[in-house]
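Escalated from tier 1: flavin mononucleotide holo job.
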Amino acid sequence: MTTPTVRQRRVLLVVGGGIAAYKTLEVVRRLRERDIAVRAILTRGGREFVTPLSLASLAGDKVYDELFSLTDEAEMGHIRLSREADLVVVAPATADLMAKMAHGHADDLATTALLATDKPVLIAPAMNPVMWEHAATRRNVAQLRADGIAVVGPEGGDMACGEVGTGRMAEPAAILAAVLARLDGGVGRLAGRRAVVTSGPTHEPLDPVRFLANRSSGRQGHAIAEALACAGAEVTLVTGPVALAPPAGVATVEVESAREMADAVDAALPADIAVCAAAVADWRPAEVRDAKLKKSDDGSALTVALTANPDILKTLAQAGPRRPRLVVGFAAETEDVERHARAKLAKKGCDWLLANDVSPATGTFGGARNRVVLFERDGGAERWPELAKTELAERLVARIADALEADTTAAVGAG
Ligand SMILES: Cc1cc2nc3c(=O)[nH]c(=O)nc-3n(C[C@H](O)[C@H](O)[C@H](O)COP(=O)(O)O)c2cc1C
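Tier 2 regenerated the structure:
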């Protein structure tokens, strides 16, 4: 067994003086959740909207705000600060910050670091719609784009100032997607690939008010769909009933039963990648009553006959010419996880199987973290450490991109 190591990615984040700075805190949280290191610079204006303490607590690192600080300069000079990141992100990018960047000002730590950096820069503008439409701002944005700076947002809608128009900072999910795509080298590694992902439980009706279900929350499947989209793939997420928002940038199809899920997956083909993370019910009530089943007066037991549901993973893995190039399944087990996972891998014919222990003590169903072993068809196995489900999703997506890029049928299955 091998446990792969991944180099930690680093972001230098500049937080400017706009109301949207509170949303940047969520971006920091989501970057850290993916084990991306965040070093933050708070401008003088930014400090009026979020505190250095909030930012430092979420980033897990001190916050830098003074250009002429002897301590900071000795510890981490402004040049090192600007170079020791893979990407520089400005969020919110205020009209003032953009004007300074466009004209090469360097009169505080943020603008000096931005001028001194040799790394790609991504900005998330946020301001009042009239400020955004102003000729000066338009000129500055055009100049920044011409200088190679990437821009995410702003979006239209209601503004904190009570006005309506374009100027809202992009949502944290969109900023995150833009950051992840750039950390992966400008374009996503899965650009041009199609993926179908299943997620959540299925509900199998018994009568108009009752159904059989399981405890799957959909968090792992949704995280995988989002991570695939962040890597540039065109993703269809087929999800059973969950209490989660559809991930950004993903075509989401909501279904209830296993049969509906099977039909929706079939409709999403052809695809290069299939990841079956849904906890599909193996059986459904053989008969669905038209009217609510009544309790009998004598309290006698009810026997419900069950019939097998379609096997979505097996159908995909054995779909002949329509088979996705890489078919990945999940095995949710409560005992003897590895033996059952190996047996499932052989029986279904998929390429990889991620086995996780979902016994109640692990908290995997519904929880934020997961621990899996990745079994490969050729006999290989990787034991991954316990990870946040979002981080696990990213690691899986990086592994998928590696396999597709390697372009060897041995690595990705018979196809
Ligand atoms: C309540 C309030 C909200 C503000 N919101 C924004 C904003 O969303 N976008 C913007 O460009 N400027 C905004 N400003 C103006 C900036 O804070 C001001 O231009 C400041 O100098 C920018 O600082 P910075 O360059 O450190 O970002 C706001 C000012 C106030 C008082």
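The first strand starts at residue 10 and ends at 15.
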